[in-house]
Specification:
The chain has helices spanning 11-32, 64-81, 84-92, and strands spanning 2-4, 37-42, 54-59. Helix content is 53%, strand content 16%. It has one domain: Alpha-Beta Plaits. Strands 1-3-2 form a three-stranded antiparallel β-sheet, with no helix packed on it.
């Protein structure tokens, strides 16, 4: 489970990036058998500055999937973005 605290006014940009980049990559990971599933959770109550807004849960088929995740995952990510440099630039953005 990864928790995200989205800065005020940045929710639209977060969800746009998720739809255009993260979701397609997760779907390719599922097709390749690297992950079993992923789920998104929204926190309706953010009373404190450190509260999270969105959580993403990723399920893996088994521990062996983690061994090949970095190598196979990198090729899927690079294919989606076109190059490693483009993927890194998107991450920095």
């Amino acid at each position: 489970m990864t928790y995200y605290s989205i800065k005020s006014g940045q929710a639209d940009a977060f969800w746009k990036d998720f739809r255009e980049n993260t979701r397609p990559i997760f779907e390719e990971f599922k097709k390749a058998g690297l992950i079993s599933d992923y789920k998104l959770f929204a926190n309706p109550v953010t009373d404190h500055p450190g509260d999270w807004n969105v959580a993403i849960s990723i399920s893996y088929p088994n521990y062996a999937a983690l061994d090949q995740l970095a190598a196979k995952g990198a090729s899927i990510v690079n294919k989606h973005f076109g190059s490693r440099e483009a993927a890194l630039a998107s991450g920095k953005k």
